[in-house]
Design goal:
By secondary structure, the chain is of the alpha/beta class. Helices cover 40% and strands 13% of the residues. It is built from 17 helices and 14 strands. Helix 4 runs parallel beside helix 5 and helix 4 crosses helix 10. The longest helix is centred in the C-terminal third of the chain and has 20 residues. The chain is globular, with a radius of gyration of 22 Å. Bound molecules: pyridoxal-5'-phosphate (PLP).
């Protein structure tokens, strides 16, 4: 029998626009001045000087009408808000964790888990690193060791699961430092700094097996877990017929606990989650949260924020929603491909990561090619992106030298449910314009460097 021909259908958003926010178009002259004033750091630009804001997908998402309606139902009691109990029941339902403490955002949870589990002199193993996560682990006295597979460090390598952990590397580390010195395995999915690359369920299960063998705890940065769950569904055999909700539950079942920056998957403007299956860790976190965040039933959030989070969680597991999200990122990647722009492959879940080393090969890494490229794209079109390279990687704790990451990237991040296909076209056209004129671009020198997370507040000047 002849195979039935599939209908061609483009991806499209499962929502329509009800409210709009005007954005400002500016001249090149205005943007040159604004970028100089901001010390060539896109984090220091005023938002009103930005046309299309692709700095981050963190807290910049459009909430649904159902989430906005929920904001009116905020129970702003100091203790025992009903929104907290609703959120707690959804954390159990979707992430499968029995114990939950709300946090004002992801890094608050990173701070608290690092303080609870790490003793000075310990190690933490992770699949690449994330800036705030690693800093909290180091501030608590740990040395972070990257055990991601080697393919993750190569922008053009098309491995389907570049977020996987190298099991041999992990076992070698355990044998070298001793299981007791490994505070926990810190696994993120997808891996932001690798280009939004997922890990596979098969790899996760192998990590779990090894962790069990040595009695090592596993903690999950589940900040963008829905994108990882989506990639498992569409790329991993055996998962194609499982719902995202089922895949999410299975992923979480292999971990001792997790944290989430709710500003991503949950499509809210603020919020974080700390959740675990350990009563002991929960008791410690619940006690610590009152010192750093607020009472354990609000953790630095208003009742209305917790309501929006609980409702966002129900929306995040929708296949159509995540398909359209990843579809938009793919659309941008495919447009850039048409122009021959170098970026990290395969296309990740939340962003396109331009390969600044390949884009600006004449700029050495200590003249900050990715920082430079982000500044040039802004000057060209008012599109704001972010550096994810040597500036983000900071300095070596012992030697004080720059860390030189293999990946020198500019992240073009898509907020959820915010921009249209035409905005994406303008972005691709602007990157192409900068690419055409790339040989004329000069690097930067750093003129101000804060002690921590220098990419947020560091300042630069153009080299002559
Ligand atoms: C993977 C990952 N983990 C943790 C965080 C920290 O979360 P927050 O910004 O809510 O403090 C982020 C934020 O961008 C992130 O992308």
């Amino acid at each position: 029998m002849a195979k039935k021909k599939e209908k061609k259908r483009s991806w499209a958003e499962p929502f329509k626009i009800k409210v709009v926010e005007p954005i400002k178009m500016t001249t090149r002259e205005h943007r040159e001045k604004a970028m100089k004033q901001a010390g060539y750091n896109t984090f220091l630009l005023k938002s009103e000087d930005v046309y299309i804001d692709l700095l981050t997908d963190s807290g910049t998402n459009a909430m649904s009408d159902r989430q906005w309606a929920g904001m009116m139902l905020g129970d702003e009691a100091y203790a025992g808000s009903k929104n907290f109990y609703y959120l707690e029941s959804n954390v159990k339902k979707y992430y499968g964790m029995p114990y939950f403490v709300p946090m004002h955002q992801g890094r608050a949870a990173e701070h608290i888990i690092s303080k609870i589990l790490i003793k000075p002199g310990d190690y933490v193993a992770g699949n690449m690193y994330f800036t705030t996560t690693k800093l909290h682990q180091e501030l608590a006295g740990a040395t972070f060791v990257d055990v991601i597979i080697k393919e993750a460090h190569k922008p053009s390598n098309t491995h389907k699961f570049k977020g996987n952990i190298d099991i041999q590397k992990l076992e070698d580390l355990i044998n070298k430092v001793g299981a007791k010195k490994l505070a926990y395995i810190s696994m993120a999915g997808p891996v932001n700094m690798a280009g939004g690359q997922p890990f596979s369920m098969e790899n996760l299960k192998a990590v779990r097996k090894l962790a069990k063998k040595y009695g090592v705890k596993m903690w999950f940065d589940a900040t963008r877990v829905m994108e990882n769950a989506y990639f498992i569904k569409v790329r991993e055999k055996g998962y194609e017929n499982k719902s995202l909700q089922v895949i999410l539950k299975e992923m979480c079942s292999y971990f001792d606990g997790l944290w989430v920056s709710a500003k991503k998957d949950l499509m809210v403007n603020i919020g974080g989650i700390f959740a675990t299956r350990s009563k002991k860790v929960f008791d410690a976190a619940r006690n610590m949260v009152v010192v750093y965040e607020g009472l354990h039933t609000y953790g630095g959030l208003a009742g209305r924020d917790m309501e929006a989070m609980a409702r966002g969680m129900e929306e995040m597991v929708s296949f159509d929603n995540i398909k359209a999200r990843v579809g938009q990122v793919e659309y941008l990647g495919n447009r850039l491909k048409e122009f021959g722009i170098p970026f990290v492959k395969p296309i990740g879940g939340h962003a396109i990561f331009l390969d600044a080393k390949a884009f600006l090969p004449h700029i050495p890494q200590d003249e900050f090619p990715a920082q430079t490229l982000a500044a040039e794209i802004y000057i060209d079109s008012g599109v704001r992106t972010m550096e994810r390279g040597i500036v983000s990687a900071g300095r070596n704790k012992k030697t004080g030298e720059h860390n030189y990451p293999k990946l020198e990237l500019v992240r073009i991040t898509l907020p959820r449910r915010v921009y249209t296909q035409a905005h994406i076209d303008v972005t691709a056209e602007s990157v192409a314009e900068v690419f055409e004129n790339r040989k004329k671009i000069k690097g930067l020198k750093m003129v101000y460097e804060p002690a921590y997370l220098r990419f947020f507040q560091g300042r630069f000047e153009r080299l002559k």
